[in-house]
């Protein structure tokens, strides 16, 4: 349950970000979706959860993926929406990537998701496969980082199997001994590539559980 006080705070944040007021009912629905997303991404899905969700035919629980080995698994899939940045243009937009307004900060969608994880105590990076860098901020503004020892060992183990950065999922995050690989796909524009499926299978072979992976399908608010 969401308290009245928490709901009013949510409405105030929404008003600050969008310049618009939102009704109690719409605020409750939006806040509930956000809390559900955070809860499901951050905890493993148990067998009984999957059975219950499949029984109710809820499409948002995941997407079936066939691995190169022929095995078929289900990966969690969620829908997100972002507000478009309307401030000063970003110098290095990577060929026209959408710029998201993340609490007043211009970011790529991958970095906006990373900010949410950081608020919950995770560390991580956007895996810039194109330039082979690990980033926590926009290129040209924030310098790339080096991975800590344990996450680096896992990344290197997987990347050795697949031959480098190619196919790595967009966001790599860690908290103690837990890991997340999140892939962002803009609705109706992106799809899971064979190289990403190969990365997924290689990660599973390295001991990463399937519930450490999730697909985030996102849209821009109009």
Explain the overall architecture.
A hairpin with a 5-residue loop joins strand 1 and strand 2. The chain has two domains: 1-42; 59-220, no CATH class. With 222 residues, it is an alpha+beta fold. It has six helices and nine strands; from the N terminus they run H-H-H-E-E-E-E-H-E-E-H-E-E-H-E. The two termini are 29 Å apart.
> How confident is the prediction overall: mean pLDDT?
85
Number of helices: 6
Shape by Cα distribution: globular
Number of strands: 9
Widest β-sheet, arrangement of strands: 1-2-9-8-7-5-6
Helical residues, percent: 25-40%
What is the H/E string? HHHEEEEHEEHEEHE
What ranges have pLDDT less than 50 throughout 5 or more consecutive residues? 52-61
The largest sheet, given as strand count, sense and whether it forms a barrel, is:
7 strands, mixed
**What's the structural domain tally?**
2
Structural class: alpha+beta
Q: Distance N terminus to C terminus?
A: 29 Å
> What proportion of the residues form beta strands (DSSP E)?
15-25%
Features:
7-stranded mixed sheet, two-stranded antiparallel ribbon, 36% helix, globular, 222 residues, 2 domains, alpha+beta
Show the helix and strand layout:
Blueprint lengths: L3 H15 L5 H19 L4 H10 L6 E4 L5 E11 L17 E3 L2 E3 L1 H11 L3 E6 L4 E3 L13 H14 L8 E5 L2 E9 L7 H12 L7 E8 L2
Parallel strand pairs: 2-9, 8-9
Antiparallel strand pairs: 1-2, 3-4, 5-6, 5-7, 7-8
């Amino acid at each position: 349950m969401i308290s009245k006080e928490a709901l009013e705070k949510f409405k105030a944040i929404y008003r600050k970000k969008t310049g618009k007021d939102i009704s109690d009912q719409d605020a409750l629905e939006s806040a509930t979706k956000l809390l559900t997303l955070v809860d499901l991404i951050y905890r493993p899905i148990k067998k009984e959860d999957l059975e219950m969700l499949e029984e109710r035919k809820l499409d948002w629980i995941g997407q079936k993926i066939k691995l190169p080995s022929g095995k078929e698994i289900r990966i969690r899939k969620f829908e997100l929406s972002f507000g478009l940045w309307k401030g000063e243009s970003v110098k290095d937009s990577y060929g026209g990537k959408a710029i998201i307004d993340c609490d007043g900060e211009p970011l790529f969608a991958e970095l906006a998701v990373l900010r949410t994880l950081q608020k919950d105590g995770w560390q991580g990076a956007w895996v810039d496969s194109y330039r082979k860098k690990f980033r926590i901020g926009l290129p040209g503004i924030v310098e790339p980082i080096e991975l800590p020892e344990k996450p680096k060992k896992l990344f290197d183990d997987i990347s050795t199997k697949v031959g480098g950065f190619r196919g790595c999922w967009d966001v790599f995050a860690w908290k103690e001994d837990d890991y997340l690989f999140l892939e962002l796909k803009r609705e109706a524009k992106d799809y899971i590539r064979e190289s990403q499926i190969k990365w997924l299978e290689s990660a599973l072979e390295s001991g990463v559980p399937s519930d450490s992976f999730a697909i985030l399908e996102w849209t821009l608010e109009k």
